[in-house]
Give the backbone structure.
Amino acid sequence: MAPTLATAFARRWWMAVTAVIENLLFSAVLLGWGSLLIMLKSEGFYSYLCKEQENRSSFANTSTSAEEYLEMNGWSICKDQDEMLNLAFTVGSFLLSAITLPMGIVMDKYGPRKLRLLGSACFAFSCLLIAYGASDPNNLSMLIFFALAMNGFGGMCMTFTSLTLPNMFGDLRSTFIALMIGSYASSAVTFPGIKVIYDLGATFVSILMVWAGCACLVFLNCFINWPLEPFPGPEDMDYTVKIKFSWLGFDHKITGKQFYRQVTTVGRRLSVGNSMKQQHHQPKDLATQEANKLCLSTVDLEVKCKSELETQTFMKSIFSPIFLLSLITMCVTQLRLIFYMGAMNTILDSLTEGNLKTVEKMEVVSVYTSIFGVLQLLCLVTSPVIGYVMDWKLKDCEDESDKCAKREPGEPRRPEKQIQKIVNATRAFIFTNLLLVVFGFTCIIPNLPLQILSFVLHTIVRGFIHSAVGGLYAAVYPSSQFGSLTGMQSLISALFALLQQPLFMAMVGPLEGDPLWVNVGLLVVSMLGFCLPLYLLCHSRHLQRLRDTRAVTTLVLEGII
Protein backbone atom coordinates (compact mmCIF):
# COMPACT_ATOMS: atom_id res chain seq x y z
CA MET A 1 0.00 0.00 0.00
CA ALA A 2 1.25 3.49 -0.86
CA PRO A 3 2.46 5.64 2.07
CA THR A 4 0.77 8.90 3.06
CA LEU A 5 2.30 12.32 2.48
CA ALA A 6 3.23 12.52 6.16
CA THR A 7 5.05 9.18 5.94
CA ALA A 8 6.79 10.29 2.76
CA PHE A 9 7.88 13.48 4.50
CA ALA A 10 9.47 11.42 7.26
CA ARG A 11 11.35 9.46 4.59
CA ARG A 12 12.23 12.47 2.45
CA TRP A 13 16.00 12.18 2.92
CA TRP A 14 16.01 8.52 1.94
CA MET A 15 13.86 9.34 -1.08
CA ALA A 16 16.15 12.23 -2.06
CA VAL A 17 19.34 10.17 -1.82
CA THR A 18 17.90 7.22 -3.72
CA ALA A 19 16.40 9.57 -6.35
CA VAL A 20 19.85 11.04 -7.02
CA ILE A 21 21.38 7.56 -7.40
CA GLU A 22 18.50 6.38 -9.58
CA ASN A 23 18.79 9.46 -11.79
CA LEU A 24 22.50 8.82 -12.21
CA LEU A 25 21.98 5.23 -13.36
CA PHE A 26 18.65 5.29 -15.16
CA SER A 27 17.44 8.74 -16.23
CA ALA A 28 19.07 10.40 -19.26
CA VAL A 29 21.71 7.76 -19.96
CA LEU A 30 21.30 8.45 -23.70
CA LEU A 31 23.32 11.62 -23.13
CA GLY A 32 26.36 9.32 -23.06
CA TRP A 33 25.63 8.39 -26.66
CA GLY A 34 29.28 8.50 -27.79
CA SER A 35 30.20 5.46 -25.68
CA LEU A 36 27.01 3.57 -26.52
CA LEU A 37 27.66 4.17 -30.23
CA ILE A 38 31.05 2.46 -29.99
CA MET A 39 29.53 -0.56 -28.21
CA LEU A 40 26.70 -0.84 -30.72
CA LYS A 41 29.21 -0.83 -33.57
CA SER A 42 31.26 -3.48 -31.78
CA GLU A 43 28.13 -5.64 -31.49
CA GLY A 44 27.35 -5.27 -35.21
CA PHE A 45 24.21 -3.12 -35.15
CA TYR A 46 23.49 -2.09 -38.77
CA SER A 47 26.86 -3.46 -39.85
CA TYR A 48 25.15 -5.03 -42.86
CA LEU A 49 24.73 -1.53 -44.32
CA CYS A 50 28.51 -1.37 -44.74
CA LYS A 51 28.57 -4.64 -46.67
CA GLU A 52 25.80 -3.42 -48.96
CA GLN A 53 27.62 -0.16 -49.55
CA GLU A 54 30.86 -2.04 -50.30
CA ASN A 55 29.06 -4.24 -52.83
CA ARG A 56 27.50 -1.23 -54.53
CA SER A 57 30.89 0.45 -54.76
CA SER A 58 32.56 -2.62 -56.26
CA PHE A 59 29.80 -3.01 -58.89
CA ALA A 60 29.95 0.67 -59.77
CA ASN A 61 33.73 0.45 -60.19
CA THR A 62 34.17 4.10 -59.27
CA SER A 63 36.81 5.90 -57.24
CA THR A 64 34.87 5.19 -54.07
CA SER A 65 35.42 1.49 -54.55
CA ALA A 66 38.87 1.91 -53.12
CA GLU A 67 37.52 3.52 -49.98
CA GLU A 68 38.71 1.71 -46.87
CA TYR A 69 36.09 0.07 -44.67
CA LEU A 70 37.23 -0.48 -41.11
CA GLU A 71 36.24 -3.27 -38.80
CA MET A 72 35.49 -3.18 -35.09
CA ASN A 73 35.34 -6.41 -33.11
CA GLY A 74 34.97 -8.32 -36.39
CA TRP A 75 32.08 -6.15 -37.70
CA SER A 76 32.32 -3.66 -40.57
CA ILE A 77 31.77 0.03 -39.75
CA CYS A 78 31.00 2.89 -42.17
CA LYS A 79 29.28 6.26 -42.64
CA ASP A 80 25.89 4.75 -43.49
CA GLN A 81 25.94 2.89 -40.19
CA ASP A 82 26.75 6.14 -38.34
CA GLU A 83 23.83 7.92 -39.97
CA MET A 84 21.34 5.17 -39.13
CA LEU A 85 22.46 4.89 -35.50
CA ASN A 86 22.45 8.69 -35.16
CA LEU A 87 18.84 8.64 -36.38
CA ALA A 88 18.00 6.17 -33.60
CA PHE A 89 19.69 8.51 -31.11
CA THR A 90 17.62 11.42 -32.47
CA VAL A 91 14.40 9.46 -31.88
CA GLY A 92 15.43 8.49 -28.35
CA SER A 93 16.63 11.96 -27.37
CA PHE A 94 13.46 13.46 -28.82
CA LEU A 95 11.27 11.24 -26.63
CA LEU A 96 13.53 12.08 -23.72
CA SER A 97 12.01 15.55 -23.79
CA ALA A 98 8.88 15.44 -25.95
CA ILE A 99 6.95 13.04 -23.72
CA THR A 100 7.16 15.44 -20.79
CA LEU A 101 4.03 17.44 -21.68
CA PRO A 102 1.47 14.63 -21.21
CA MET A 103 3.67 13.33 -18.43
CA GLY A 104 3.53 16.68 -16.63
CA ILE A 105 -0.24 16.92 -16.96
CA VAL A 106 -0.68 13.40 -15.58
CA MET A 107 1.77 14.01 -12.74
CA ASP A 108 0.16 17.29 -11.68
CA LYS A 109 -3.18 15.51 -11.39
CA TYR A 110 -2.33 12.03 -10.14
CA GLY A 111 1.09 12.37 -8.52
CA PRO A 112 4.50 10.92 -9.40
CA ARG A 113 4.13 7.34 -8.08
CA LYS A 114 2.44 5.70 -11.08
CA LEU A 115 4.67 7.44 -13.61
CA ARG A 116 7.81 6.40 -11.75
CA LEU A 117 6.64 2.78 -11.61
CA LEU A 118 5.91 2.86 -15.35
CA GLY A 119 9.25 4.51 -16.14
CA SER A 120 11.33 1.94 -14.27
CA ALA A 121 9.45 -0.89 -15.99
CA CYS A 122 10.01 0.67 -19.46
CA PHE A 123 13.70 1.16 -18.75
CA ALA A 124 14.13 -2.48 -17.75
CA PHE A 125 12.30 -3.59 -20.90
CA SER A 126 14.51 -1.35 -23.08
CA CYS A 127 17.62 -3.07 -21.71
CA LEU A 128 16.12 -6.46 -22.56
CA LEU A 129 15.32 -5.26 -26.10
CA ILE A 130 18.90 -4.09 -26.73
CA ALA A 131 20.23 -7.37 -25.38
CA TYR A 132 17.88 -9.33 -27.65
CA GLY A 133 18.91 -7.24 -30.67
CA ALA A 134 22.59 -7.85 -29.91
CA SER A 135 22.01 -11.61 -30.13
CA ASP A 136 21.34 -11.33 -33.90
CA PRO A 137 22.23 -7.82 -35.16
CA ASN A 138 21.92 -8.75 -38.84
CA ASN A 139 18.18 -9.35 -38.43
CA LEU A 140 17.25 -7.47 -35.24
CA SER A 141 19.11 -4.14 -35.59
CA MET A 142 15.80 -2.30 -35.98
CA LEU A 143 14.99 -3.08 -32.35
CA ILE A 144 17.46 -0.37 -31.36
CA PHE A 145 14.86 2.25 -32.40
CA PHE A 146 12.20 0.82 -30.09
CA ALA A 147 14.74 0.22 -27.32
CA LEU A 148 16.10 3.77 -27.35
CA ALA A 149 12.56 5.18 -27.52
CA MET A 150 11.55 3.21 -24.40
CA ASN A 151 14.85 4.07 -22.77
CA GLY A 152 14.22 7.77 -23.33
CA PHE A 153 10.64 7.53 -22.09
CA GLY A 154 11.54 5.53 -18.98
CA GLY A 155 14.47 7.78 -18.15
CA MET A 156 12.39 10.92 -18.43
CA CYS A 157 9.70 9.41 -16.19
CA MET A 158 12.33 8.97 -13.48
CA THR A 159 13.79 12.44 -13.98
CA PHE A 160 10.47 14.24 -14.14
CA THR A 161 8.96 12.60 -11.08
CA SER A 162 12.06 13.38 -9.02
CA LEU A 163 11.64 17.12 -9.72
CA THR A 164 8.56 17.26 -7.47
CA LEU A 165 10.41 15.72 -4.52
CA PRO A 166 12.20 19.02 -3.60
CA ASN A 167 8.81 20.47 -2.59
CA MET A 168 9.35 18.77 0.77
CA PHE A 169 12.49 20.82 1.49
CA GLY A 170 10.97 24.31 1.90
CA ASP A 171 13.21 27.27 1.07
CA LEU A 172 15.88 24.89 -0.26
CA ARG A 173 13.57 23.75 -3.05
CA SER A 174 15.60 25.28 -5.89
CA THR A 175 18.81 23.79 -4.50
CA PHE A 176 17.30 20.31 -4.43
CA ILE A 177 15.77 20.80 -7.89
CA ALA A 178 19.26 21.64 -9.12
CA LEU A 179 20.63 18.54 -7.39
CA MET A 180 18.04 16.34 -9.12
CA ILE A 181 18.77 17.94 -12.48
CA GLY A 182 22.50 17.60 -11.83
CA SER A 183 22.12 13.87 -11.24
CA TYR A 184 19.98 13.68 -14.39
CA ALA A 185 22.63 15.46 -16.45
CA SER A 186 25.42 13.40 -14.88
CA SER A 187 23.70 10.20 -16.01
CA ALA A 188 25.67 10.64 -19.24
CA VAL A 189 28.53 9.03 -17.32
CA THR A 190 26.64 5.73 -17.14
CA PHE A 191 27.38 4.46 -20.65
CA PRO A 192 31.08 5.41 -20.44
CA GLY A 193 31.19 3.45 -17.18
CA ILE A 194 29.50 0.51 -18.86
CA LYS A 195 31.97 0.77 -21.73
CA VAL A 196 34.85 0.39 -19.25
CA ILE A 197 33.25 -2.81 -17.94
CA TYR A 198 32.69 -3.91 -21.54
CA ASP A 199 36.33 -3.30 -22.43
CA LEU A 200 37.41 -5.37 -19.42
CA GLY A 201 35.76 -8.41 -20.97
CA ALA A 202 32.15 -8.49 -19.74
CA THR A 203 29.65 -9.42 -22.44
CA PHE A 204 27.25 -6.77 -23.67
CA VAL A 205 24.21 -8.96 -23.06
CA SER A 206 25.14 -9.82 -19.46
CA ILE A 207 25.70 -6.13 -18.64
CA LEU A 208 22.24 -5.24 -19.94
CA MET A 209 20.60 -8.09 -18.01
CA VAL A 210 22.14 -6.89 -14.73
CA TRP A 211 21.08 -3.33 -15.55
CA ALA A 212 17.50 -4.45 -16.14
CA GLY A 213 17.55 -6.18 -12.75
CA CYS A 214 18.70 -2.96 -11.08
CA ALA A 215 15.79 -1.13 -12.73
CA CYS A 216 13.48 -3.61 -11.01
CA LEU A 217 14.94 -2.46 -7.66
CA VAL A 218 13.93 1.10 -8.59
CA PHE A 219 10.40 -0.19 -9.17
CA LEU A 220 10.41 -1.79 -5.70
CA ASN A 221 11.76 1.32 -3.97
CA CYS A 222 9.07 3.49 -5.58
CA PHE A 223 6.35 0.99 -4.68
CA ILE A 224 7.35 1.11 -1.00
CA ASN A 225 8.18 4.79 -0.44
CA TRP A 226 6.46 7.08 -2.96
CA PRO A 227 2.94 8.36 -2.12
CA LEU A 228 -0.04 8.46 -4.45
CA GLU A 229 -0.71 12.18 -3.93
CA PRO A 230 1.30 14.93 -5.67
CA PHE A 231 3.82 16.75 -3.49
CA PRO A 232 2.33 20.21 -2.70
CA GLY A 233 4.64 23.21 -2.77
CA PRO A 234 6.16 24.52 0.47
CA GLU A 235 3.93 27.58 0.28
CA ASP A 236 0.86 25.32 0.33
CA MET A 237 1.77 22.70 2.89
CA ASP A 238 3.46 22.18 6.20
CA TYR A 239 4.06 18.44 6.38
CA THR A 240 4.78 18.56 10.09
CA VAL A 241 1.12 19.25 10.92
CA LYS A 242 -0.97 16.06 11.05
CA ILE A 243 -4.42 16.43 12.62
CA LYS A 244 -7.44 14.35 11.73
CA PHE A 245 -10.83 16.05 11.81
CA SER A 246 -12.91 13.49 9.98
CA TRP A 247 -15.81 14.10 12.39
CA LEU A 248 -16.08 17.60 10.91
CA GLY A 249 -17.13 16.08 7.60
CA PHE A 250 -14.09 16.90 5.49
CA ASP A 251 -14.07 14.67 2.44
CA HIS A 252 -10.51 15.53 1.41
CA LYS A 253 -7.06 15.55 3.01
CA ILE A 254 -6.13 18.82 4.66
CA THR A 255 -2.96 19.62 6.58
CA GLY A 256 -0.44 22.37 7.15
CA LYS A 257 -0.95 26.02 6.36
CA GLN A 258 -4.18 25.36 4.48
CA PHE A 259 -5.47 23.61 7.61
CA TYR A 260 -5.04 26.74 9.69
CA ARG A 261 -6.81 28.94 7.17
CA GLN A 262 -9.67 26.50 6.70
CA VAL A 263 -10.23 25.58 10.34
CA THR A 264 -10.13 29.25 11.36
CA THR A 265 -13.07 29.88 9.03
CA VAL A 266 -14.88 26.79 10.30
CA GLY A 267 -14.20 27.75 13.92
CA ARG A 268 -15.75 31.16 13.46
CA ARG A 269 -18.91 29.63 12.00
CA LEU A 270 -19.09 27.08 14.82
CA SER A 271 -18.59 29.79 17.42
CA VAL A 272 -21.33 31.97 16.00
CA GLY A 273 -23.70 29.03 15.57
CA ASN A 274 -23.19 27.72 19.10
CA SER A 275 -23.61 31.14 20.72
CA MET A 276 -26.96 31.57 18.95
CA LYS A 277 -28.13 28.11 19.98
CA GLN A 278 -27.20 28.69 23.62
CA GLN A 279 -29.82 31.43 23.80
CA HIS A 280 -32.61 28.91 23.10
CA HIS A 281 -31.59 25.50 24.45
CA GLN A 282 -28.70 23.48 25.82
CA PRO A 283 -26.02 22.72 23.23
CA LYS A 284 -25.55 19.13 22.17
CA ASP A 285 -22.27 17.29 22.10
CA LEU A 286 -20.29 18.73 19.22
CA ALA A 287 -19.30 15.33 17.86
CA THR A 288 -22.94 14.17 17.59
CA GLN A 289 -24.10 17.05 15.42
CA GLU A 290 -24.41 16.69 11.66
CA ALA A 291 -21.10 17.42 10.01
CA ASN A 292 -22.56 19.22 7.01
CA LYS A 293 -24.20 21.76 9.33
CA LEU A 294 -21.03 22.38 11.28
CA CYS A 295 -18.48 23.14 8.61
CA LEU A 296 -18.04 24.65 5.23
CA SER A 297 -18.29 22.52 2.14
CA THR A 298 -15.17 21.27 0.41
CA VAL A 299 -15.72 23.61 -2.50
CA ASP A 300 -16.27 26.53 -0.13
CA LEU A 301 -13.03 25.75 1.66
CA GLU A 302 -11.01 25.42 -1.52
CA VAL A 303 -12.33 28.66 -2.96
CA LYS A 304 -11.62 30.61 0.21
CA CYS A 305 -8.13 29.22 0.58
CA LYS A 306 -6.81 29.70 -2.92
CA SER A 307 -3.88 32.06 -2.97
CA GLU A 308 -3.57 34.87 -5.43
CA LEU A 309 -0.87 32.97 -7.34
CA GLU A 310 -3.01 29.86 -7.75
CA THR A 311 -5.81 31.80 -9.46
CA GLN A 312 -3.49 32.19 -12.48
CA THR A 313 -4.78 29.92 -15.24
CA PHE A 314 -2.59 27.50 -17.17
CA MET A 315 -3.19 29.30 -20.49
CA LYS A 316 -2.26 32.62 -18.92
CA SER A 317 0.99 31.07 -17.68
CA ILE A 318 1.80 29.66 -21.14
CA PHE A 319 1.37 33.02 -22.88
CA SER A 320 3.25 34.99 -20.24
CA PRO A 321 6.46 36.69 -21.48
CA ILE A 322 8.63 34.78 -19.01
CA PHE A 323 7.49 31.39 -20.30
CA LEU A 324 7.72 32.37 -23.97
CA LEU A 325 11.23 33.75 -23.56
CA SER A 326 12.26 30.67 -21.59
CA LEU A 327 11.12 28.62 -24.59
CA ILE A 328 13.46 30.58 -26.86
CA THR A 329 16.34 30.13 -24.43
CA MET A 330 15.77 26.40 -24.01
CA CYS A 331 15.27 25.77 -27.75
CA VAL A 332 18.56 27.32 -28.84
CA THR A 333 20.46 25.83 -25.89
CA GLN A 334 19.06 22.33 -26.42
CA LEU A 335 19.87 22.41 -30.13
CA ARG A 336 23.41 23.57 -29.38
CA LEU A 337 23.99 20.83 -26.77
CA ILE A 338 22.19 17.95 -28.54
CA PHE A 339 24.00 18.59 -31.83
CA TYR A 340 27.37 18.50 -30.10
CA MET A 341 26.56 15.20 -28.36
CA GLY A 342 25.20 13.54 -31.49
CA ALA A 343 28.04 14.69 -33.75
CA MET A 344 30.87 14.51 -31.20
CA ASN A 345 32.61 11.48 -32.72
CA THR A 346 32.49 13.04 -36.20
CA ILE A 347 33.76 16.36 -34.83
CA LEU A 348 36.64 14.60 -33.07
CA ASP A 349 37.40 12.75 -36.34
CA SER A 350 37.76 16.05 -38.18
CA LEU A 351 40.13 17.37 -35.52
CA THR A 352 42.33 14.26 -35.42
CA GLU A 353 45.60 14.78 -37.27
CA GLY A 354 46.93 12.34 -39.84
CA ASN A 355 45.08 9.65 -41.74
CA LEU A 356 41.44 9.69 -40.69
CA LYS A 357 41.06 5.99 -41.54
CA THR A 358 43.70 4.60 -39.19
CA VAL A 359 43.17 2.54 -36.06
CA GLU A 360 45.12 5.14 -34.07
CA LYS A 361 42.47 7.72 -34.96
CA MET A 362 39.76 5.43 -33.61
CA GLU A 363 41.68 5.00 -30.38
CA VAL A 364 42.07 8.75 -29.97
CA VAL A 365 38.34 9.30 -30.50
CA SER A 366 37.58 6.53 -27.99
CA VAL A 367 39.83 8.15 -25.38
CA TYR A 368 38.21 11.57 -25.81
CA THR A 369 34.76 9.98 -25.69
CA SER A 370 35.64 8.37 -22.36
CA ILE A 371 36.92 11.71 -21.05
CA PHE A 372 33.65 13.35 -22.05
CA GLY A 373 31.71 10.64 -20.22
CA VAL A 374 33.71 10.95 -17.01
CA LEU A 375 33.32 14.74 -17.02
CA GLN A 376 29.54 14.34 -16.91
CA LEU A 377 29.84 13.84 -13.15
CA LEU A 378 30.60 17.56 -12.98
CA CYS A 379 26.87 18.17 -13.41
CA LEU A 380 26.25 16.65 -10.00
CA VAL A 381 28.72 19.12 -8.47
CA THR A 382 28.01 22.25 -10.49
CA SER A 383 24.20 22.15 -10.79
CA PRO A 384 23.59 22.86 -7.07
CA VAL A 385 25.63 26.06 -7.56
CA ILE A 386 22.84 27.48 -9.73
CA GLY A 387 20.30 26.16 -7.23
CA TYR A 388 22.12 28.05 -4.49
CA VAL A 389 22.08 31.19 -6.66
CA MET A 390 18.31 30.76 -7.14
CA ASP A 391 17.81 30.44 -3.35
CA TRP A 392 20.17 33.32 -2.49
CA LYS A 393 18.92 35.39 0.50
CA LEU A 394 15.36 34.02 0.29
CA LYS A 395 15.31 33.36 4.03
CA ASP A 396 15.95 37.05 4.68
CA CYS A 397 13.07 38.20 2.47
CA GLU A 398 9.58 39.32 3.37
CA ASP A 399 7.03 36.56 2.83
CA GLU A 400 3.29 36.91 2.15
CA SER A 401 2.51 36.37 5.83
CA ASP A 402 4.88 39.18 6.84
CA LYS A 403 3.29 41.90 4.71
CA CYS A 404 0.57 42.66 7.21
CA ALA A 405 2.95 42.80 10.17
CA LYS A 406 3.88 46.28 11.36
CA ARG A 407 7.53 47.29 11.44
CA GLU A 408 9.15 49.11 14.29
CA PRO A 409 10.05 52.77 13.64
CA GLY A 410 13.40 52.94 11.85
CA GLU A 411 13.39 49.23 11.02
CA PRO A 412 14.60 48.68 7.43
CA ARG A 413 12.17 47.05 5.06
CA ARG A 414 13.15 43.56 4.00
CA PRO A 415 13.23 42.60 0.29
CA GLU A 416 10.13 40.93 -1.10
CA LYS A 417 10.63 37.20 -1.73
CA GLN A 418 9.03 37.18 -5.19
CA ILE A 419 11.26 40.02 -6.41
CA GLN A 420 14.34 38.35 -4.94
CA LYS A 421 13.51 35.11 -6.76
CA ILE A 422 13.35 36.94 -10.10
CA VAL A 423 16.62 38.78 -9.40
CA ASN A 424 18.30 35.49 -8.57
CA ALA A 425 16.97 33.91 -11.76
CA THR A 426 18.32 36.84 -13.79
CA ARG A 427 21.83 36.27 -12.45
CA ALA A 428 21.58 32.54 -13.09
CA PHE A 429 20.55 32.95 -16.73
CA ILE A 430 23.15 35.64 -17.48
CA PHE A 431 25.93 33.41 -16.14
CA THR A 432 24.63 30.34 -18.00
CA ASN A 433 24.34 32.14 -21.33
CA LEU A 434 27.84 33.57 -21.00
CA LEU A 435 29.18 30.06 -20.53
CA LEU A 436 27.20 28.91 -23.58
CA VAL A 437 28.81 31.62 -25.73
CA VAL A 438 32.28 30.65 -24.51
CA PHE A 439 31.44 27.03 -25.35
CA GLY A 440 30.50 28.11 -28.88
CA PHE A 441 33.88 29.80 -29.37
CA THR A 442 35.82 26.75 -28.15
CA CYS A 443 33.92 24.59 -30.64
CA ILE A 444 34.98 26.85 -33.50
CA ILE A 445 38.71 26.68 -32.70
CA PRO A 446 40.13 23.59 -34.51
CA ASN A 447 42.26 22.27 -31.68
CA LEU A 448 41.77 18.75 -30.32
CA PRO A 449 43.10 19.24 -26.75
CA LEU A 450 40.93 22.37 -26.43
CA GLN A 451 37.88 20.14 -26.79
CA ILE A 452 38.40 18.99 -23.23
CA LEU A 453 37.49 22.55 -22.20
CA SER A 454 34.47 22.25 -24.52
CA PHE A 455 33.50 19.05 -22.69
CA VAL A 456 33.66 20.85 -19.34
CA LEU A 457 31.63 23.83 -20.57
CA HIS A 458 29.07 21.55 -22.28
CA THR A 459 28.57 19.65 -19.03
CA ILE A 460 28.24 22.78 -16.88
CA VAL A 461 25.84 24.54 -19.27
CA ARG A 462 23.62 21.46 -19.54
CA GLY A 463 23.24 21.24 -15.79
CA PHE A 464 22.89 25.01 -15.31
CA ILE A 465 20.21 25.64 -17.94
CA HIS A 466 17.83 22.92 -16.72
CA SER A 467 18.34 23.91 -13.08
CA ALA A 468 17.77 27.59 -13.83
CA VAL A 469 14.59 26.96 -15.82
CA GLY A 470 13.23 24.56 -13.21
CA GLY A 471 13.96 27.04 -10.43
CA LEU A 472 12.37 29.87 -12.41
CA TYR A 473 9.14 27.94 -12.98
CA ALA A 474 9.01 26.91 -9.32
CA ALA A 475 9.48 30.53 -8.27
CA VAL A 476 7.12 32.30 -10.66
CA TYR A 477 4.27 29.86 -11.35
CA PRO A 478 1.91 27.87 -9.08
CA SER A 479 3.27 24.51 -7.95
CA SER A 480 0.18 22.82 -9.42
CA GLN A 481 1.35 23.92 -12.90
CA PHE A 482 5.03 23.04 -12.55
CA GLY A 483 4.82 19.67 -14.28
CA SER A 484 2.63 20.88 -17.14
CA LEU A 485 4.75 23.95 -17.87
CA THR A 486 7.99 22.00 -17.70
CA GLY A 487 6.47 19.39 -20.00
CA MET A 488 5.33 22.01 -22.51
CA GLN A 489 8.79 23.59 -22.52
CA SER A 490 10.50 20.22 -22.95
CA LEU A 491 8.19 19.21 -25.81
CA ILE A 492 8.74 22.41 -27.80
CA SER A 493 12.51 22.42 -27.21
CA ALA A 494 12.65 18.74 -28.21
CA LEU A 495 10.84 19.50 -31.47
CA PHE A 496 13.28 22.31 -32.16
CA ALA A 497 16.24 20.05 -31.32
CA LEU A 498 15.19 17.70 -34.14
CA LEU A 499 17.03 20.16 -36.38
CA GLN A 500 20.22 18.49 -35.19
CA GLN A 501 19.62 15.62 -37.65
CA PRO A 502 19.60 17.78 -40.84
CA LEU A 503 22.53 19.75 -39.42
CA PHE A 504 24.41 16.48 -38.92
CA MET A 505 23.54 15.36 -42.46
CA ALA A 506 24.75 18.69 -43.83
CA MET A 507 28.01 18.38 -41.90
CA VAL A 508 28.84 14.85 -43.11
CA GLY A 509 27.52 15.60 -46.62
CA PRO A 510 28.06 18.98 -48.32
CA LEU A 511 30.49 20.20 -45.63
CA GLU A 512 32.51 16.96 -45.86
CA GLY A 513 32.76 16.45 -42.12
CA ASP A 514 33.84 20.02 -41.32
CA PRO A 515 31.71 21.38 -38.42
CA LEU A 516 32.98 24.99 -38.65
CA TRP A 517 30.03 26.68 -40.35
CA VAL A 518 27.46 24.74 -38.37
CA ASN A 519 29.16 25.83 -35.14
CA VAL A 520 29.31 29.45 -36.30
CA GLY A 521 25.58 29.44 -37.06
CA LEU A 522 24.74 27.88 -33.70
CA LEU A 523 26.92 30.45 -31.92
CA VAL A 524 24.98 33.30 -33.54
CA VAL A 525 21.61 31.72 -32.67
CA SER A 526 22.68 31.14 -29.04
CA MET A 527 22.80 34.92 -28.54
CA LEU A 528 18.99 34.83 -28.35
CA GLY A 529 19.35 33.30 -24.91
CA PHE A 530 20.07 36.74 -23.45
CA CYS A 531 16.51 37.90 -24.16
CA LEU A 532 15.17 36.14 -21.06
CA PRO A 533 17.54 37.63 -18.44
CA LEU A 534 17.07 41.07 -20.03
CA TYR A 535 13.30 40.80 -19.60
CA LEU A 536 13.66 39.43 -16.05
CA LEU A 537 15.84 42.41 -15.17
CA CYS A 538 13.21 44.87 -16.42
CA HIS A 539 10.41 42.88 -14.78
CA SER A 540 12.09 42.86 -11.35
CA ARG A 541 12.62 46.62 -11.50
CA HIS A 542 8.97 47.09 -12.46
CA LEU A 543 7.84 45.00 -9.47
CA GLN A 544 10.14 46.96 -7.18
CA ARG A 545 8.65 50.27 -8.36
CA LEU A 546 5.14 48.93 -7.73
CA ARG A 547 6.17 47.86 -4.25
CA ASP A 548 7.66 51.28 -3.49
CA THR A 549 4.47 52.93 -4.73
CA ARG A 550 2.32 50.73 -2.50
CA ALA A 551 4.55 51.50 0.48
CA VAL A 552 4.24 55.27 -0.08
CA THR A 553 0.45 54.96 -0.49
CA THR A 554 0.21 53.03 2.78
CA LEU A 555 2.20 55.66 4.63
CA VAL A 556 -0.02 58.42 3.24
CA LEU A 557 -3.17 56.61 4.35
CA GLU A 558 -1.73 56.10 7.83
CA GLY A 559 -0.98 59.80 8.07
CA ILE A 560 2.76 59.35 8.46
CA ILE A 561 3.49 61.39 5.35
User: Anything to note?
Assistant: Confidence is low (pLDDT under 50) at residues 59-67, 239-270, 282-310. The two ends are 62 Å apart (CA to CA).
